[in-house]
Prior knowledge:
By secondary structure, the protein is mostly helical. It is 56% helix and 7% strand. It is built from 13 helices and four strands.
Amino acid sequence: xxxxxxxxxxxxxxxxxxxxxxxxxxxxxxxxxxxxxxxxxxxxxxxxxxxxxxxxxxxxxxxxxxxxxxxxxxxxxxxxxxxxxxxxxxxxxxxxxxxxxxxxxxxxxxxxxxxxxxxxxxxxxxxxxxxxxxxxxxxxxxxxxxxxxxxxxxxxxxxxxxxxxxxxxxxxxxxxxxxxxxxxxxxxxxxxxxxxxxxxxxxxxxxxxxxxxxxxxxxxxxxxxxxxxxxxxxxxxxxxxxxxxxxxxxxxxxxxxxxxxxxxxxxxxxxxxxxxxxxxxxxxxxxxxxxxxx
Length: 294
């Protein structure tokens, strides 16, 4: 924070505390009004000019004293760090150290086991589920069934492989998938033909005739087979989807498939090893492994 904004906050805070204190004491009365009113009348009811109850006034004073003590002890006055030396980072580090002391031995026990064995332990799976809910469910859903553009982790269809090691690598290191845009290369007719051919690979109904499917196959062989394979079954080493299994990340309708071919897709799975740590990656990988349809 710059010095200007620091002094601006200090000035505003101090001014507010002083004004509130002045307002409280300047308007304080200690004796009953003796029948005098404030001149305010509401529905025929006159407001008497009587002092606040003592306990009420004292509560106001306590709040002011508390406010002064708070901004003196905690960093509430610009760049002033407070006499208590408290910081949110320090608080976080203390809580993390406490949690590590409490749960570290449990994580260490499971970390010596293989992902497959951890997936068979009920306690470990429950821990992995909680980690998943806190960090992964936003994209993949609380039930891990995914949504548009986010893979279903329970159906056994894996871009980069569904083995325990492959899943852990995906969680730990992250993945970056890229489907290039082919619209400018093959033209709109090419997009239409390839769409029909690709959808036919997974057994989806199409209105295309044999000539159009043949044209689509020709374009596919020239532009798509290098990644997805000549039979369309994909390539897990590249993260190229299987186009013959009727599992579609972005939808299988003609419009969705055509859009993917025409404009391409870019997907990013963030690396979690530096966010949740190796021990938690191990547990959440075991949880995901336990969900997949093997």
